[in-house]
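Many introductory courses stop at the sequence. We go one step further.
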Amino acid sequence: MAFAVARRRLSNKLIGQDVSWTTTSWIFMAVAYASKEGPVELDEIIGTADGINKAIPSYKELQRSLGQLQSKGVVEKKDGRYALTEAGASLMDEASAKHSRMFDVLDALSADLPDRGDIDLDEEITLERVNASYKRYKRRFWKRYRELEKGD
């Protein structure tokens, strides 16, 4: 199990909430939120995943989850950019219509998007690519943070 998911589950158990969502559903939700305006690169998925879970997905989590989501036909990749397919948008819409809380939506998505280990890896996602994407996300984050700080 992914460290970020394990940490979230432990944290929520301590406050009396049970969480059963998967890394794959977390990455799916990140793609869904990030790609509302069109296909996105890894740095945008990483940033959105961080916003959802307060954790950066690892290279393996991205490689596994995005590979499995593409194999399931709910995420597509074109020219290194990711977006939901029509089936993925329908899945997200259905889960969102049934639940108002983000983590309840993640729980609902997890039933359709289980973690399957090292099956259907996206081999184009390399450690170097994820590191470069993380650096782009971090630069963008701190730039925006400083802009907001000046605005206060």
